[in-house]
């Protein structure tokens, strides 16, 4: 056994976490949002890094409060010593679970009258007033009161503490800013409806990482950032530092003549005599995996394929290799298709050898949980 998983799944890769890069990113975000509060989203087990591990890095960076999407994670943060506010951004409809959340001072998202009934029962039974942020549905289609059909909520403050009001941006890529501002207008319309009912909406927030880094706080009171804290923000993240990557050693090198094929489907044909390096890492570790779950629109896909063919050097995927002997670094290209457990890289014209370390940029959410994690301290 190792500390993070069964020995059966032991791999040669290690997840590296740079705490100083995370601190840098938090500082950049704060410079972007002005006086707005920073809600650190640490969902999905700390974005795959380990919830306790990420919390231990963030707790000294003066985070205003935390957010998760799982009740167990909210309670775990309390066990880890988190004294800051914690927002649970999914509904808790199990009475026993909700009671434990209430006893641990977790802030509930409230987006339906069904939830309100449950929280009223808990309030009457415990004498405690649940703290809530009202969820408003403005275009994501998940949770919340529909922005233009806010029911009569005027009775809620009698047994709840309404401390905030928020929504989720859907991140529509075409006309991103226009869509974000459309959802913002819907949220503001909903907060005005609440005020007419005599309800103070509290702190308002809608911006995720991408919106925060490209649009700031949109004039609201707080932002919610997860991927930006890790330096993984796809939009507006050029000022951020990547804080998470995988490392694995070159396990084998091979000399192959011109015309040899490499990788699955023989899609790589060597155009010269080459020296390749084999690394025991692949899709099973989390390498070369992405978010997309829908095919690209036809025209966009065709244009992208043409660009890849015409601008091969620009679109060629590379990895950073560090010599174990003298610490020198250089980027080298992938060769062929990545497999579940192996990738090949081109070492021709480089001095790199077996044992030298290859660095892979990854989304930590997709990294195999058995892979050990190492934090480089501040």
Note down, in words, how this protein is organized.
- The chain is of the alpha/beta class.
- The protein contains ten helices and 19 strands.
- The strands form three sheets. Strands 2, 3, 4, 5, 6, 7, 8, 9 and 10 form a nine-stranded parallel sheet that branches.
- A hairpin with a 5-residue loop joins strand 12 and strand 13.
- The two termini are 29 Å apart.
- About 1% of the residues have low confidence.
Entry summary:
This protein is an alpha/beta fold and 378 residues long. Helices cover 28% and strands 24% of the residues. The chain is built from ten helices and 19 strands.
Name the features.
378 residues; 19 strands; six-stranded antiparallel beta barrel
Share of helix among residues?
25-40%
Our Rg estimate from Cα atoms comes to 24 Å
State the low-pLDDT regions, or none: 292-296
Name the shape in a single word: elongated
H/E series: EHEHHEHEHEHEEEHEHEEEEEHHEEEEE
Overall pLDDT score = 91
**Distance separating the two termini:** 29 Å
């Amino acid at each position: 056994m190792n500390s993070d998983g069964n020995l059966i799944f032991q791999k040669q890769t290690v997840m590296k976490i740079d705490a100083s890069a995370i601190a840098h990113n938090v500082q950049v975000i704060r410079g972007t949002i002005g006086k707005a509060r920073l809600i650190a989203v640490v969902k999905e087990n700390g974005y795959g890094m380990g919830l306790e591990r990420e919390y231990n890095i963030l707790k000294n960076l003066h985070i205003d409060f935390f957010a998760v999407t799982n009740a167990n994670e909210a309670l775990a943060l309390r066990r880890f010593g988190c004294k800051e506010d914690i927002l649970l951004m999914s509904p808790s409809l199990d009475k026993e679970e909700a009671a434990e959340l209430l006893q641990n001072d977790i802030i509930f998202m409230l987006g339906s009258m069904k939830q309100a009934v449950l929280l009223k029962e808990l309030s009457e039974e415990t004498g405690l007033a649940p703290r809530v942020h009202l969820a408003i549905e403005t275009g994501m289609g998940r949770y919340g009161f529909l922005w233009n059909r806010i029911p009569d909520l005027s009775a809620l403050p009698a047994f709840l503490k309404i401390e905030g009001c928020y929504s989720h941006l859907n991140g529509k890529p075409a006309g991103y800013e226009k869509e974000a501002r459309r959802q913002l207008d819907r949220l503001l319309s909903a907060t005005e409806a609440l005020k007419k009912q005599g309800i103070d909406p509290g702190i308002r927030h809608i911006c995720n990482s991408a919106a925060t880094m490209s649009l700031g706080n949109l004039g609201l009171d707080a932002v919610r950032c997860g991927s930006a804290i890790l330096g993984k923000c796809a939009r507006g993240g050029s000022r951020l530092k990547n804080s998470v990557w995988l490392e694995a050693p070159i396990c084998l090198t091979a000399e192959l003549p011109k015309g040899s094929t490499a990788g699955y489907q023989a899609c790589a044909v060597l155009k010269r005599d080459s020296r390749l390096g084999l690394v025991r890492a692949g899709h099973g570790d989390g390498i070369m995996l992405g978010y997309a779950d829908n095919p690209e629109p036809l025209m966009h896909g065709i244009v992208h394929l043409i660009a890849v063919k015409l601008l091969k050097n620009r679109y060629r995927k590379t990895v950073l290799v560090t010599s174990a002997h003298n610490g020198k670094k250089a980027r080298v290209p992938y060769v062929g298709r990545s497999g579940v457990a192996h990738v090949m890289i081109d070492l021709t014209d480089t001095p790199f050898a077996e044992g030298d370390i290859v660095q892979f940029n990854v989304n930590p959410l997709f990294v195999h949980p058995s892979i050990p994690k190492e934090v480089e301290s501040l």
